[in-house]
């Protein structure tokens, strides 16, 4: 696409130079940008109209109305499992995004090395230095350290409305073994799990960890999706039948929900497929996937609260809380990213997008 | 309540969708919000008028007028006992709030792990890495480490106008044993003590630590209050007689002052009950209780200074400095929270509220 648009752009540039009546370059660049971001090519219009989710209304429907009688924790308690010797930004992005959207409490479970750094990013987070990596664990100690790590997380498990597994997790074998056990504990406690980043590396190599768990959400990017398709469907990605293939993949993994991130986000639970293509930004700075995982965690928690409380009287479609959480999370991130890009253009960073989460939410769903 | 409001909201959503003449969703949400926040139900109006403290005038009465002849420390020296392996934000919120309101010096006594992180949040705080947790202490060393920890705090004790015990304290048994000894030292030195967070867990299990100490303030939230009532009054919380039960509880603990946090803050010293219900915010992000404990510490110190200096000629009601401190602290936090919410709405975090403390204080009680 870059080459194609580059060529388009040069053609435009020449015509602008050759004809006095041609519109100014800035206007042409703006037009080209809008064409690319809004994707007003034939197949996108079709796709948008047929599968596009009513994302703003869904977000409004699942976001709780404020009630002064509620107390701390009732608007959501989420936990991020991630943060190791190399990565400390990703779990922070996911955890702080959850708070900025409206969760009451946000925890991070990371390695001892990562904890002081993640804590120093924000006093708002509760950071537990409990994970261990191979370099700090002797072979003899592995069993009892695994039990200790899993127990440290499990004593909190019942309190969490959602777990985000993967942001900045790294690929240390011992750490990933512990995280596999944590995922099993979360399933036993019926806690929803969002799998992103290195969590997808873990799960793609051991699909049984999430297979058949309807409260699991996978949020792969282009490459992570490719590996998932190859591993589970034993074939290559087929963009001619993107919707059908995504639905088959979700069904094959036993009805988990998959949010395939891209220019247009595609979401399926194996039963239906929805797309979210409004707004968005052409900037691809690292960390936006972490905002998405933290956002989906909050909206999924709210959708689940609403559906459990409403005992089936809820008039909303789709009715699967994981689908609702993905649609709302995708819509909010895309709007925040577009607002940040309007302001910062090429220098847009993930922290700029996080700063736009509140305004985006207020635009779509005013607090009062 | 979640069910009720979820259903209300969806009914509204449907009517808005089904009837052309239905008011816009934003208007309906606004109306619902105002009805809940203003609490225009009979019992709330009654409660407010009968027990509501004259909080703004009390805050103005106890806040000292600036005097160029005063020197560092005379406007207040507070200390927070808290901060452990998991929690570093809570003691920071309490200690920095005290400074933002006007204290001259704010100390934090925490574990060695927590100290560098808390120091990194702000260069304004004096952070002492003196507390120890079980995992870093051998059984043989416990006695002399306890003596050393208590001595480290005690050598500062006489300088403090108020101690805040509990924000981010954690529940490590050895650490809590040391804190019990610190509370005993503070009582011997006649230093006021505010007990919050995990400090309430400690005190609820050993009520003798504060029983009969008139300079102790407990600041329980919904769950902490429930445990306190069960333990001390051996019954359940009775919201039909919220005022009477709170007064009985405070009297039963020998005249300590209790600030029961909620939609309407209730305060009693066993003799009278006052409420503070002005302003406030529907956002329940974690950390607001820490701001309150730091604020009450400063106002209590000022009220006590004023009462001691005035030798009984002070015309102000109530006359108990712990009641005055609680009323002013509650009023200030509620105003700051409402200002922050006006600006940030759903994305309001505790740090946003702390940034509004100065403006709130200036609105109620201009510096000059």
UniProtKB/TrEMBL annotation, chains A, B:
PROSITE patterns: YJEF_C_3. The keyword DNA-binding does not apply. NCBIfam families: yjeF_cterm. The lineage of its organism: Eukaryota, Viridiplantae, Streptophyta, Embryophyta, Tracheophyta. Keywords: ATP-binding, Lyase, NAD, NADP, Nucleotide-binding, Phosphoprotein. Its cofactor is Mg(2+). This is ATP-dependent (S)-NAD(P)H-hydrate dehydratase. Its EC number is 4.2.1.93. The keyword Transmembrane helix does not apply. It is an enzyme of class 4 (lyase). Catalyzes the dehydration of the S-form of NAD(P)HX at the expense of ATP, which is converted to ADP. Together with NAD(P)HX epimerase, which catalyzes the epimerization of the S- and R-forms, the enzyme allows the repair of both epimers of NAD(P)HX, a damaged form of NAD(P)H that is a result of enzymatic or heat-dependent hydration. ATP binds at residues 261-265, 280-289. GO terms for biological process: metabolite repair; nicotinamide nucleotide metabolic process. It catalyses: (6S)-NADHX + ATP = ADP + phosphate + NADH + H(+); (6S)-NADPHX + ATP = ADP + phosphate + NADPH + H(+). InterPro entries: CARKD (IPR000631), Ribokinase-like (IPR029056). GO terms for molecular function: ATP binding; ATP-dependent NAD(P)H-hydrate dehydratase activity. Belongs to the NnrD/CARKD family. (6S)-NADPHX binds at residues 168, 221-227, 290.
């Amino acid at each position: 696409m870059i080459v194609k648009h580059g060529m388009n752009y040069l053609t435009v540039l020449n015509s602008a130079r050759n004809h006095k009546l041609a519109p100014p370059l800035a206007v042409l660049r703006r037009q080209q940008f809008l064409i690319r971001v809004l994707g007003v090519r034939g197949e996108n219009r079709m796709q948008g109209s047929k599968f596009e989710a009513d994302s703003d209304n869904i977000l409004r429907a699942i976001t709780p109305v404020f009630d002064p009688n509620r107390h701390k924790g009732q608007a959501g308690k989420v936990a991020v499992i991630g943060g190791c010797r190399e990565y400390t930004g990703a779990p922070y992005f996911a955890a702080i995004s959850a708070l900025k959207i409206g969760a009451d409490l946000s925890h991070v479970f990371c390695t001892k090395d990562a904890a002081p750094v993640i804590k120093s990013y924000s006093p708002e987070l509760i950071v537990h230095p409990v994970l261990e990596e191979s370099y700090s664990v002797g072979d003899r100690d592995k069993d009892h350290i695994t039990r200790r790590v899993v127990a440290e997380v499990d004593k909190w498990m019942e309190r969490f409305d959602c777990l985000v597994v993967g942001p900045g997790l790294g690929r240390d074998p011992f750490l990933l073994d512990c995280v596999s056990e944590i995922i099993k504990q979360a399933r036993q406690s019926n806690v929803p799990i969002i799998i992103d980043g290195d969590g997808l590396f873990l799960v793609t190599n051991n699909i049984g960890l999430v297979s058949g768990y309807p409260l699991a959400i996978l949020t792969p990017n282009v490459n992570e999706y490719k590996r998932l398709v190859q591993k589970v469907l034993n074939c290559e990605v087929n963009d001619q039948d993107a919707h059908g293939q995504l639905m088959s993949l979700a069904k094959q993994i036993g009805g988990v929900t998959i949010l395939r991130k891209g220019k247009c986000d595609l979401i399926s639970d194996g039963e239906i497929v929805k797309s979210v293509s409004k707004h968005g930004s052409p900037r691809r700075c690292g960390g936006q996937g972490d905002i998405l995982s933290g956002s989906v965690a909050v909206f999924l928690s709210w959708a689940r609260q609403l559906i459990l409380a409403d005992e089936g009287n809820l008039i909303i479609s789709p009715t699967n809380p994981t689908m609702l959480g993905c649609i709302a999370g995708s819509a909010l991130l895309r709007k925040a990213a577009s607002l940040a890009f309007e302001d910062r253009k090429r220098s847009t960073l993930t922290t700029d997008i996080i700063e736009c989460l509140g305004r985006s939410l207020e635009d779509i769903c005013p607090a009062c």
